[in-house]
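G., the chain you wanted modeled:
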Amino acid sequence: MHLLMPARWIKLTLVLLLLLIGAGSYIYNQFLIEKIREHESSSVELWAKGIEFSYAPEHEQVSTNLRSAIDILSGIPEVPDSVIVKIRDAELIRSTYDFVQEHLITVDRFQIPAVVVDEHGNFLHYNGVRESDLGPGLIRQFSQIHDPVEIVIEGEHFQQSQLIYYGESQTIQYLRYFPYVQFGLLALLLGIGYMSYRSITRSEQSNLWVGMAKETAHQLGTPISSLYGWIQLLHEKVEDRSESGKIVAEIENDVSRLRDIAERFNKIGSDPELHVMRLEPIIDQVIQYMENRLPRLGKQVDVRKSVDADIEVKLNPELFHWALENLIKNAMDAIRENSDSAYLAIHASRTDHEVHIDIEDSGAGIERKNIGEVFKPGFSTKSRGWGLGLSLTRRIIEDYHKGTIQILYSEPKKGTRIRISLKSSL
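Predicted structure as tokens:
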């Protein structure tokens, strides 16, 4: 049974929302860029017309004629100075053309990198580019962005063609990066929102789990106490060495087992007391208890144990016992599903700062796509599983013992190896 968690739908919804916002932002950004490109193209065409206007031959001819008239009239005494002044003022109209060329067109009114070249590729004017960048490479770069604008300068005895090559302003360049910045910020905000939601959800699930665990322990407490009373009565009625006495002893063991289980549930949600203990006896207890279940597998299982006798760790024996039981039980279930040779191995070793406990089996293994899911609540490959055992195990190891648990190796039909890592008490 593989339950699809609601968080996945929320994650998918957030990703789709992010993509839609990002796509909308990108499309609108491209629209703005295109509008600015059209405006810049119009500006360059205006620059071209300004250059053509500035070099129109009739303007220069008018200035020449006016200057000649001033020279002639200046040599005639009868001509009043006021006439000469008026003619000189008329000649100064030429400065208006220079103003159009120099102050409205060619200088940095338009922050558009552009160059003007003649028919032979010689650079005549440039705007918004460094002189050191002038060269054929710059022309090729600009021609890939825009088609050049042609300027035709005509005189009485000549005609010259010039071309304006231009690129994109910094405004457009900044706008091209804006969607990526916006997308990154949106992703960050949505990520923070999703992590906050997960944190709240986990807290709610944790509180629900703790409440259920404590309620279970409370409900088990009354019938267990009652069973102990009946067992005492049975002990008084039968002899310990008789067959009935042995049965009563086994019943007492099972009731003690139920009491331990109730105690485990009661510890969920509380800060368990951790004690420095030898690891090997706890592993031996788990193996001894679980070996009684091995004949039910219908096959011979080779149980291997390799534990350094002097390893000591700080742990809660009841909860840690429970975690190991869950791992070994899952290993036994996996062995049952695999028809090949069966073995179960527990290996414990110590490094400078950590103790590693490896549980390895020759079971059915875990598919690669499920490796990241096995410790999540609700995930199970069993038809009748609730998917809580490994989730509880991870909580016992990571939350209560401040350790880690991970799948070191798993391959279908070959087996699985899971490692628990705890801080060494040395």
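The radius of gyration is 44 Å.

Shout if anything looks off.
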